[in-house]
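Lab notes, practical 5.
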Amino acid sequence: MPEIDHASSPSRLVIVGDPPAQAVSDGCLQPRRAVDSAGLPARSASASHCQALRRYSFRCKGIDFLAACDGNALYLREQLFSELATDELRQLLAFATYYHSLTNEDRSGPVPAATRRWVLDRLTELNQQSPGYGLTPRQAAELAFAEDLLDKLELLPGTIGRQIRTNAGYLIAERRASDLRRRDGPDDGLLRNRLGAILAKESPLTPIDIEFVTFGSPWHYALWNNLSVETLAGDLRGEYGDEVAISVRRLDRLDLVDTVFNRARATFPAIVGLSVELGTLPLVDRYLDWHSHDPRARGSILVLGNQLPTYFPERFLNDLRVPTAIVCLHEGELVMRGLVELIRGRTQLPDINNVVYRCRETGAIRRTPLVNLDLEALPHPPSGDTVKPGMTNMIQTSRGCVFSCTYCTRWSSFNASTKIEAIGEVTAPSPSTKWRHFSLERVFRNVEIFLSRGISEIEFCDDEFFGGRSAAALNRIHDFALGMAAIGQKWQTRLSFRIFTTPLIVSREPRTRKIAEENERIRQALQLLRNAGLTRVYIGLESGSQAQKLRYNRKETLGDTLCALQVLQDLDLDIDVGFIMFDPSLSVEELLENTAFFRANGLVRYNTWPFRPLVVNEGTAIKRKLESQGLLTGEQEPNFMAFGYRFADPAVAQIAEAVHRISRSSAPVFYALKTISKSHWHGGDEAIDFAVHTVQANAEIYLDMMESLGEAAAMGCLGERLALVSSQTEREVRGLVSQVARMIDRGVFRHRGADEATLRGHIDAYWREASGQDGGLPGRQQPSREFGRSSTPD
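Output from the prediction step:
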């Protein structure tokens, strides 16, 4: 056997078996002609002499390797070749050649009954371990007598069906290879004596280069890890291993965009994915300007996703700077996998679901079918590229929501693309857009990734964590809590986590015995979660007025809301509350009901932005309702996917405008403090404790203002009181800002250098504007004075 010198040629390729003559010809010894971008033989090298080349991934002694088979020979990286014993090589070749024959049109005949039973049993076990990757017992029973097993599996739909067929083929090949081994026994000299060639000076493995760019609005702080792109990166790395090389960038300033294109590199990534969040269009426009003028980017696939491209795909598809751009709609995992397959030459763009693109031949906009994912069939957790201690780090356990609030876009996002002209009519929301959950195994792997990086505070950012009050939902919560507790014990640490839910899940007025029993089961589930580390619960109350709740399609009564708050307080859980004070149909009476509800229940501890207005987004039921009522102004802010509106009640309009005018200039200061207040949930740091106290004091000021002006409006003297109350509010806010400045001078924020610099900048801008020297915050896009066009983030 030839000696392999790892030091001198660490990337050579070994061919095991009987390769066709063309595969080892002189032409094939030329690295750039003989290997594809993954460092394995090119299809064209032996296309006329052997079957199609198929690629495999093997794990040997803890290392993942790539290999390929053309039906006659097995092509291995030399490191894998040297790690395997002769018998292992023989087994591997037998497996690969058998599997190769199974995946070609010329099937190798019926599957014997014993092999079929063994394969179906294994697929059933696999489905229990990784749901969606095998067969259910019922499916296995239906296939028990199918000699044409692989042909029957061809009928399974979609990508998941293709994965099951692939697994079945692997199992059949494994069984046949094992049968051969038992029949013939090991032969130490067989394969090594049939070594075809060692291709010297072969180029190293070249994975597909993929870069995800996530943009952050200058108006929104980076409070969180960038879960959207981390999810896609983790899925691709898990699915393709070393066949892909992925980087993630966060750009929240124009100068950072410039650095992407000023890099000294000869080529651009093969795929660039842009995650376009709300408020980021100026940054995206700058990026596209650079992209259109950079010759390195011409061969790159550009794909845009997230909220703005999903709802306004034509804005990007009609952009002449990027005529070949692709828009990803809805969930992106299968889109990104499809683009990798596209580069590999295994699929075509029209065959990738959930995309919109402009056809090169006709210039027409094309939309491929929209499909929804079985989340349990996505086993790979997010990559964690952007997680770090000291910030809110998020994990998803589910997607979707069982409710349909009128202001929410979740229910309609699946069909957002149908609004493009000439593509199709808007259809009813797919039932599959309702609540769906990931496997708990995936979630727990994600948690352990965080713990390995020193992160023990986690935000489970599901739209709604529980998925209902059914027995099945609560059984899953029970398993989740036990799993989290076990992870904490394994890592010898105390986990802290927050969840999102609604009053109707937590508790309801016990109007019937059934509801009372459900309430008790939920309380027990919350207690179990608390034992496992649940620290905070975000609960969307949204209003203290029953009439306003009805406009929002909130099904709970005020009594239900109070029951839910009481349960969380009795369990000694910290609470965050969602609340939308102003909407276009708000009356003065409802405004006072809201402020009274806030006061009576001490909500300022749980919500420090009590004056938040409704944001009317594209794709929501309330947008259509307001449009029919003539309350939309016709103004639109694409950057925030929002529409301007007017108030039906003139008195409410005056109050809302006064609150907006005063809060606008100081909002950056108090939002920076709010960011600090949320950096750790347990306090104990003087800067954090001061931030918590100050943002609550700011909230009390505006609560006083809204209450005073609401009472004046109810008595018919708003005009007389408006200026006086507004002046008092401005003085109190200035006093708080001065107090923050003094604390900075005292050095309270010295250990938080970036936060201190941010606060100083915002305070300086506030005083300049207050003195009339500046019309706005330098370097920041100002939120519109028209209601509904933007909002300060929560």
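Observations recorded by the TA: The CA atoms of residues 54 and 544 lie 62 Å apart. The longest strand covers residues 534-542.
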